[in-house]
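Solute carrier family 40 member (Plectus sambesii), 492 aa
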Amino acid sequence: MTFSRSPAFKFYCSYTLSTWADSLWQFTLSFALVAIGGDLQLIAINGLVNGVAVLFFASSVGKWIDETKRITAARTTLTLTNGSVALSAICLIIVQHWDMSQIWNGALRFLLILLAISLSTLSVLTQTGTKIVLTKDWVVVMCNNEKDKLAAMNAWLLRIELAATILSPLKVGLLMTRVSVSAGCLLIAIWTVCSWGVEFWLLNVVYRSVPALAVKKSTDVALEIVHPSSVGLLEPGSTTKLEHNTDVLLIVTNTVPDKNCRGKLGSALRSAITGWLSYYQQSVFPAALSLALLYLTVLDFDGITIGYAFSQGLPADVLALARGVGALMGIIGSVIYPLSRSKIGLVRTGFISFLIELLCLALCILSIWLPGSHFDPIGYFSGSGSLWMADLSITQIMQESIAEHERGVVNGVQSSANRLLSMIKDLLVIALPDPRTFGLLIIISWLSILLGFMSYSVYSRRSRGHNLPFHGLFSTVFCCNASSDERDNSDT
C-alpha cells in the first residue's frame, strides 16, 4: 500500500484541515473583536472565558470521551467545533455590517457579541476534545504499540501544527488587509463548513481501515472478567473469584450517575474532582506536571512577547518573521526527536531537551542586565527546538503509560492544568503591565521552566533509577561486579 492510500496519510490530512481551521479562526477572531470593540477588552474577556471553560470542563469532556465510542466522539467534537466556529463568525459579520445600536437600545448588538464569544468558547472546548480523541487515543491505537511509529506520527502532527501557525495567518491576514475583517470572518465560515465534510469523510475512512479503533477497553476490571482465562470451566476455588468480579461489576454499574436525580452541574463537578485525583495518581504525574509548568512563561513568543517586542520598536514584519523562525526551529526539533529517541531513549531525550532549553533561555536572563532591550531572540530561537522535543517526549510518555480507559479524562485534566498555568501567566502580566518590568516576567518564566525540569527529573529518576547522562559508563567502571541485568537497566 502506498503512503497516499494509507490510513496514516488520511489521518494527517484530516488533522491538517482541523489545525488550519483552528489557526485561521484564532487569528481572525482577535482582529474581529478589536474591530468591534475598538480596544483589547473583548479579546481579554474572550481569553478569560475560554480559560475558565477549559479549566473547569476539560476533564468532563475527557471523561465523556472515555465513555463514548471513538468514532462517535470524533464526529461529535468535530461537528460541534466547526458548527460553533461558523455560527460565531456569522454573528461577528452581522455585528460589523449592520448598525444595531438603535435596536433595543443596543441590546441586540450586545447579545450577538455575547453569542459569538459563547460559541467561540464552545469551539475551544470541543477542539480540545478533538485533539484528545485524535492525538492522545487514535494515534496510539493506529501505531499498535510500535514506539518508533508513535514517535514518528507525533512528530508529524507537531510539524503540521507548527506549519499552520506559520502559514495560515498569512492567508487570512492578506485577505483582511486587502479587503476587510468581515471578509476574513466570511472565509472562516465557508472554510469550516466545507472542511467539516472532508474531515468527516476522512475520519470515517480511517476508522474503517483500522479495525482496532472499533474495540475500546472500558476498564481493567472488565478486561480481566472477559479474558479467555476467565470464561473456561470453573476450577475448584474459582467461584470466589467470580463472585468477587461480579461484585465489582455491580459496584461499577451502581456508580453511574443518576441523571434524573442529580444536576448536571454537580455531575460535572464530581467528574472534575475525580479526574484531578486520577491525574495525580498516575505514575507519569511528575512528567505531566513538568509539561504544564512550560505554559507559565512569556518566552514562547505568544501575544505577550510580541506585544513587548513591538513596544520596544521592532516592526510588525520583523516580528512575524521572528515568529516564523521560532516555529521553524520547532519543526527542526520535531525532525531530531525521533532520531534522538531511537538512539538514547525516550526519557533521556526529554531530560536532555529540558536541560538544553534551560541553558538556551539563560541567555534571556543575561539580557536583562545587558544594555538595550530585555528581548533576546537568540535565546528564544535556540531554545525553541528543545522546547518542542521536551513536549514530544512527555506526550509520548503519557501515551505509553496511561491506561486506555483513562486517556480522555487524564488528558482533559492535562489541558486544564496547562490552561491554569497559562492563566497565572496572564494574571502576572496584568499585575506587571509596564514593559520595564518585563525582565521580572522573564525571571519568573525561567524559574517555572526550572521547576518543570526538576519535576521531570523526579520522573526520570523513578523511571531510569538515575539522572546521570553517562550512568552506564560509571556503572561499568565502578560497579564491575554488577549483574548483566543491572547494567542493562542502568542504560535505559
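The chain has 18 helices and no strands. Confidence is low (pLDDT under 50) at residues 219-258, 477-492. ok done for today
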